[in-house]
Amino acid sequence: MTHDTDTQFPPRSATMSALVEWSDTDAAGHHHNSSILRWVEACEVRLYRQLGLLEHFPSMPRVQQVVNYTSKLWFGQEVTTTVRIQAVGRTSITFEFDVYGEEFDGAARVRAAHGTFTSVHVLPADTRATPWPDDILKLVDPHRVAPVAV
């Protein structure tokens, strides 16, 4: 059973929808590349909220991001963004994401962007990545933390 459907463990993905607003477009009339980053970040925050990690967000800075742009999105088009935990390392967590433009003006649903980003655990008074504490690890990768006997 996967983490996403296993009720014993927290979700490992989040999905949200938005509309391409006028401010999301550029002079060419389609979405500006930075819009993808905003939608992905908003979905990332949703996942942290679902996991109960929102208070830890400031100690999880992003250190790498790769975005592959594959299709244009248009003003008024609905956009669906999904962010998933891909891998959890000793000090880092890597996410993957997809951004889809939903059916619009007779055009079929299309993947507009996909990629990955990596964040690390950094204590507030530190400047280097540190290992994940167990309270965070049990939320992002519960199978790595030994269950407590009851």
What is the CA-based Rg, rounded? Answer: 17 Å
Share of β-strand residues: 25-35%
Share in helix: 10-25%
Strand order of the largest sheet: 1-3-4-5-2
Structural class by secondary-structure content: alpha+beta
**Average pLDDT across residues?**
88
Description:
The structure is a single chain. The chain has 150 residues and is α+β, with helices and mostly antiparallel strands. It is built from two helices and five strands, in the order βαββββα. A five-stranded antiparallel sheet has the order 1-3-4-5-2, covered by helices on one side. The radius of gyration is 17 Å and the shape is elongated.
Strand and helix layout:
Layout: E1 13-19, H1 33-51, E2 62-69, E3 78-88, E4 92-101, E5 110-120, H2 134-140
Antiparallel strand pairs: 1-3, 2-5, 3-4, 4-5
Throw out a few tags for this protein.
single chain; 150 residues; alpha+beta; Thiol Ester Dehydrase, Chain A; five-stranded antiparallel beta sheet; 5 strands; 31% strand; disordered N terminus
Brief synopsis:
By secondary structure, this protein is an alpha+beta fold. Helices cover 17% and strands 31% of the residues.
